[in-house]
From TrEMBL, chain A:
This is ABC transporter substrate-binding protein. Belongs to the bacterial solute-binding protein 1 family. GO terms for molecular function: maltose binding. CDD domains: PBP2_TMBP. The keyword Signal applies. SUPFAM superfamilies: Periplasmic binding protein-like II (SSF53850). Residues 1-29 form the signal peptide. GO terms for cellular component: ATP-binding cassette (ABC) transporter complex, substrate-binding subunit-containing. Keywords: Signal, Transport. It comes from Streptomyces hawaiiensis. Coiled coil: none annotated.
Automatic annotation (TrEMBL), chain B:
This is Sugar ABC transporter permease. Residues 1-40, 330-353 are annotated as: Disordered. The lineage of its organism: Bacteria, Bacillati, Actinomycetota, Actinomycetes, Kitasatosporales. It comes from Streptomyces hawaiiensis. Keywords: Cell membrane, Membrane, Transmembrane, Transmembrane helix, Transport. It comes from the Bacteria. Residues 7-21 have a biased composition (Low complexity). Residues 336-353 have a biased composition (Basic residues).
Amino acid sequence: MKSSTARAIQCSAALAAAGLLLTACGSSGGGSGSGGSAQTASTAAFKGRGPITYAAGKDTTGTVQTVIDRWNKAHPKEKVTFIQLPTDADSQRQQMIQNAETKSDAYTVLATDVVWTSEFAAHQWIEPLPASQFPLGKMLKPVVETGQYRGKLYAVPASSNGGLLFYRTDLLKKAGITQPPTTWAQMTADCAKVKKLPEAKSMSCYAGQFQKYEGLTVNFAEAVNSAGGRIVDANGKPDVDTPQAKKGLDFLVKSFKDGTIPKEAITYQEEDGRQAFQSGKLVFLDNWPYVYSLAQKSAIKGKFAVAPLPGLDGPGASSLGGSNLALSSFAKNKATALDFMKFFTSEESSTYFLKNASLASPYADLYDNASLDKQFPYLPDLKQSITKAVPRPRVVQYGDVTAAIQNEVYPALTGKKSSAQALKDLQSDLRKLTAQ
Amino acid sequence: MADTAIPPRTAAHRPGTTATRRPGRPPASSRPRRRSRATAGTGRLAALLVSPTLLVLTIVVIYPTLMALDESLYGVKGLDPKTGFISATEPFVGLKNYTDIFTQAGDRFWNAFWNTTFFTVVTVSLETMIGVAMALIMHRAFRGRGLVRASILVPWAIPTAISGLLWKWIFNADGIANVLLGHQVLWTADGFSAKVAVVIADVWKTAPFVGLLVLAGLQVIPKEVYEAARLDGASAFQQFRRITLPLVKPALLVAVLFRCLDALRMFDLPYILIGAQKGSVETLSMLAQNEASNVRFGPASAYAVLLFLYVFLIALAFVRLLGADLTGDAGGTGKSGRRRSRVARRRVREVTA
């Protein structure tokens, strides 16, 4: 690291030079950004055509390559190469960061998780995008917001995701319940009725993802948002030490204590919960829509349905999942990249992904399409879930924020800390992390 | 070295050169001069031959270590609240990363430090005992010995990440471990049971490695020694304590040292089996990785440097105190170290004779 300072000087010199040059020619660019010179410069900088790459997690459905092939056929001189990154999100993020830290042009278009936007944008690893060139108005609002940092668009929604309540229709019907619960109190009451049935004696009521990992952050955020609380306010300041947030966390803590949530759920990730639900151990499960098609192939086929997540006084709020497309700041051929991003996130591509990979679309009107609803009966509920969804904190240091949440919520769930103390400590941890 | 290292070619040329090219000179006076010239040449040749190794070592060991040391003196890039962008440069903070580790980040560091030490001490002692037992079994002559040897080595052949996944299923809430116990232990939750799970998985995986090295040591112990002992009426336990253990010690020490160094930088097993952010199994490597993945390379380097020093001290202690003969030529400079390693070498020679 002898060159650290030298490198820094070089960088800032280069940046300054680029800033000067580009502000000089920025006016002709038609960029929508109007902040510092860097932004004006960047939006105007979509230059260069030629081959590019698309870096995303391993494609298990085989659909990504098909869509890329379609693009390549139409644009033989601007071919897109698909770079498959590891399956888990943490490794993908790590590789993208490494790529950015070395200012490598290996990745052009990045498939980013919805929670990475602020971090990537703040580090200027990704370019601000011309919002007017994407049909953002046709997309669901909370989804579009995941791609923004400080009011500017840095990533375009490619797919979305929202939590759903899976429940056993057969058991609820037998217990004389016709409607899925919309509040937590209803859910526990329904559960008590179901548990009186002989076949449900050994079942547990409800589970989500409570292992100490990102899933815990998702489930905690859902509980807090569903009780009318929030983790950070509109300005990004932590606001978690509130009575509403406490009610949300208390629901989880109490459920663990009284057995509504089984003890072992403290080790559940998505798949553990799905397996427990499929093997008839759970009456209710909070999980992503992917469970639907897999559970249809299991022993409980035809015996379950989905509903929006319940909340404290009415339907709850899900955490948003999904992925966006961002443009690496260090890539070449950015004009091609912008066109490819438009193509890849178009309604047409999105329909294809929905039909063939059951990826939730960011486009609102796909959810009201009758023929699609027939194929995917959960779509209306998913739309409601996504429109009412709350994104996880959009902060630059997301990795530290999610770790802080896990570090405080986990001991609360296991009974090592009171929920009040956990929230108080979390508030002060988050205040430090967002103070910069 | 000078006597032995003269290439044979020099010697072969000697009569020819003295006879034809320098007839006037007495052979006696020319010999020392020629030898010294030859030595200089050999020195140069030796330097030339060793230089690629030194170059590679510099590139892959020394340079990265110095880089890490230097990087650990830089802080975290700050966020400009006005623009919302992270600054492009890392500020030079001197030793602040280190002082932070021992003050404000102290709890987490010491927790990771004790976890690392705990895992090293517990797993290596268990592995040594089980490994020696395995080696003794593998050393016996019996039917199907090849099969037993091969099957004992299977865990060692499996990549750690894969065995981490494997044990994750075993330690699942509904996994085999709980079925066998008839009691639900939440192994992968954050707690002491998580530590136990990591120890079990690590011992399962690496005891065969110790077994393998010890087996190699056992195989060079001459049978006559045991025969003589038996004639003298030594019991099986006495034979083990007085013959097997001392004679296998050099091999065992190398195995234990390797295991210690490996266990000190344990990362993938707890990371995959139990997960990140779990205080009960977080090791120093995991701490460094966590810092680096949150784009704080300075503090991450500081952790890595401390871990490096810890590993280095343990290795040094091994070589100095226990006389583990790693270099093969008693490279130690301490008197006791040299004596001990000489003893160890003599043993090896006895054994290999």
